[in-house]
Specification:
heterotrimer, A mainly alpha, B mainly alpha, C alpha/beta, B: mainly alpha, ABC transporter involved in vitamin B12 uptake, BtuC, two-stranded antiparallel ribbon, 12 helices, 4 strands, globular, C: alpha/beta, Rossmann fold, 3 domains, six-stranded mixed beta sheet, 22 strands, about 25% strand, membrane (chain B)
Amino acid sequence: MKRRLWSGLVGVVVALAVGALIMLAQGYKPLSTYVALFQFSLGGIGPFTTTLKNSVPLVLTGLSAAVAFASGPVNLGQPGQFVFGALAATLGGLYIRLPAVLEIPLLLLLAIAGGALWSSIAAFLRRAFEMSEFIVTLMLNMIADFFTAWVIAFPLMDRKAFSPMTPQIAKSGWMPDLGLLSSSTLVMLGAVVLVWFVFHRWRAGYEWRMTGQNSVFARLGGCDIHRNFLAVMLVTGALAGLAGGLVVMAGPHRFIKGLGANYAWDGIMIAIMANNSIVGTLVYGVFIAAIQTGALGMELITNVPSEIAQVLQAVLVLIIVATREYTNVLLDRLSARRQAKERAA
Amino acid sequence: MNVLIGLITGMISGATPILLAALGGTFTFYAGVFNIAMEGMMLMAAFFAVLGSFFFHSWVIGLAFGVLGSLTLALIFILFSVKLETDEFVTGIALNLFALGITTYFLRQIFKVKGVFTSKSIVPVPQLHIPFIEKIPFVGPVLSGRNLIVYIAVIATVFCYYLIFKTRFGLRLRAAGYNADSLDSSGVRTSRIRMQALLLCALFCGLGGAFLSLGYVTLFAENMTAGRGWISLAAIILVDGHPYGIAAISLLFGFFDGLGLFLQNYGVASQFTAMIPYIATLFALYVYAQRRREKKRKRV
Amino acid sequence: MNDLIALHNIVKVYPPNVLAVDDVSVSFCKGEIHSIVGENGAGKSTLMKLLYGLVPFDSGRIEFGGVNVRFRKPGDAIAMGIGMVHQEIVLIPQYSVWENVVLGAEPVRTLGRIDSRTAIDAVRSKIEEFQFNLDPLAIVDDISVAARQKVEILKLLFRNVSVLILDEPTAVLTPQEIPQLFAELKRLRDRGHTILFISHRLDEVLELSDRITIMRKGRKVATVEASETNKESLATMMVGRQVIFTSKRTPHQRGELVFEAQHVDWERGDGLKLLDDVSFSVHAGEIVGIAGVEGNGQFELVNSIMGLEQPTRGSFLVKGKDITSLSILERRKLISFVPQDRGKMGASLSASILDNAIMTHHRLEKRFSRWHGLVLDYRKARDFVDMLKERFSVQMASRQSDFRSLSGGNQQKVILARELLLATPFFLMDQPTRGLDVGSIEYVHGEILAMREADRAVLLISADLEELFLVADRILVMHRGCIVADLMTEKTTIEEVGAYMLGGRASA
């Protein structure tokens, strides 16, 4: 546990150093850039709540990937499930008008159902035809992307807008702000707690974890791995769908072009950094959100293009994972060498 | 007639990048590397090819830059996955993200644009006109006048087959995938073979990526590979890495790619025609899964 | 005799802290067969891997022909004339015999093309030179295990090695194939090759070797002349105390019929029957052993009983209840199971000890769950692990440690305990002592015999005939998917069982 914390910290520091080198090579000042970056994301209540709000889709798609990877299914379909969740919530918001107490939960449920629906296709193809979910979910991402692009360009297009987007959803379906804090943040935190509880305390979660680690053993132990596979696919699809719904309901309040593109691989990346741990996903999700949020502000005062955030993210994943794995190997080797020396003496 | 020729040439253009990337991936496939970085390698190549061609007004330098860009990614892959023993899947995903991030960043940083960069100064890879054959009706316009890289891809297919199945390198390459311990205990370092496989993969992905931005079209667009790396991975899996099989599958995808463009002229929404290659991939995976199931039933 | 190889004060620690070889000095002469014996985990394989350059050592030095050497990879060792045949055969099954032999030393023509004709001729002449009776064009996947082992040896001879290291080569052979191997090894020795032979089967070692080095817990105990020692004294040195080679089985009345296999067939897609009309029964308080060379249907039998595979015909009954079409969970209410592969089937190495210990119990025992099975009661689970640790004296750091951190013997204790504590009438064990040290093996045997006392029905599948003769009441022999013999342990001999194993019904 302690070791995990350390290797994570070392990873972050090394990754930031590599990022600094890239900036130096480009002729920017890394230190002031980083200061600006974190100033705009963590420096104060306002920036921090913005970061938290921006972390909602990251943490939720991250949870989706983390639960999937830790339980076996290689669900890489978060982007597709995300846009389908967003689409379902948008549809609900456009055609159903209820008071906010009913509208919001209804739209959230629709988003969950939309994501689960899309992931269930991959689950079905796997169950019925033994098609690996790995490439299937990737292809479904592309298809979902084009499908939603069509929906917002033709049937649901807002005729007053200049680029493809839907009209706004009912006001009662907007996630309210509680002071500076967006209520979508609370939904996300609730989801994190619930998923942690399911994963670590429920019998189903126990079986998912065991199946993810060794499916033959789990199967021989009496776990129904096919049913668990389906359950995990649905749950993880639902989480990604919820992320999509929340982005629509707390942000532009409509489905705009390129809505999901920004979060395409972020969830998977965060889950990988967190080594599929649920708490880790929350931490790294907020961290990545801080970088993304700060990058926009940073661009204003330092001239460093905000796209550097994308580079930084990729470097972070690689370095954090490599550091984590390599620190463990290194520590083991060191202690082995120490003991060998004692024996030889 | 012209429609048919158009369809066929469209098919060839659509097939070429997938063919090249898949040929590259087949080396890592046989070497036992779980390499999913083809997408990133192609994207890097597509960007740097435009960069080289734009600044030096030469498609040769463009091609060289493209391959170098792709090789850089392979070197990072080797550093992390082979040297530091980081998980291959994780390395691949991170590198795809890195390629997307760095190309988007440089697009903004160097060319000062968002989304798409296009310019008259980008010199595309030329088309090759073959004398005599050019004159033959129907066959001529199909076989001649294609982009130089298309011809390279055809030669590469035969070359890869020879390299993998007839040479010493090929024997060791496949051994690395079948049983790395056996190869190691035979006195050949598996890690070395895997590095070579990754470099070869990057070379072919580099050509494929350069074709996208200097042949298929003459511009660079953010994330312009659009999942072609993944489709090429699917193609490899579908035919168990056999170069000739890959060529056939690539042509099939090229056909659907061309069909999409064709249907667009007849008023089908572009969003739907763009889906066709991905749906085709799903269908191909279905056929593959059924065939494998059948095989499994025959021999467990 | 001159020392060809001398190891001086070798130390090896596997990260993070497994002391595998502890200050070992030993020397080997030219033209001798030198055996290295010891229990599992005594460090004999590691010592050879260090010599071979497969594993780096931490301190000490190795002399070869009077010169200090340190091989960084097996290729270096091979170049100097040292070759090793591993415990698990490491060939490429998809390749032909000749391709496997020449891999890494391939003759080539222009453009890197393999000169297959030259290669095949060279391999064929080596085969003739050493009278190995192999077809160079055969695909390795299609040839027998004994033949594959020959390919491994041939591969080294092709590289002109003068020192051959063999790591437990007889483990995969039938009793009848072993003399042939020994004859080949002696022939090699007489031609001047040095052979280092790793084993823990003392009879074989005594028959084959010139000298014997005994290892225990990473240390060298002694090197002795084979002609001046015997089995008992070797065993004592190996284990560090007297070992009893006789059974502790006491007469026990068998009870009612518990498990029955009725005319079970398991047909592969291509029509080959891997289980062919298998029928037998196990009674309460009875231990039935299944002997057979690996790959004669035992795997399919276990998978069919457990429900991983569906038999094509026939049925299994437990206490008269047909389980053939039940789910695995339903079967587990009646069957306890210890699989042969701890890391793949018996446990999850990366999960905690607690998570491993409650598997199956989490479904079958009501006390582990609350809210109608929705939530697991981890407090009860912790108590359960504490009880298990106490009762089976498992050495563990904490309940939350990775299962992998346990020693092999303790891993098997946890698995055994978990399965024992399921209230089932029938116990299926597949090679439960594979890879364990002598102490742990004795423990497992004790538990198996205790189950018999408790009137459970036990089916024990084992490739180790000595084990079967120690604990089983009845021995069934499997050959090519058939049960070819049903013998009372008291009324048969190892030789008779061995003959059935090799030749089926006809030969005995």
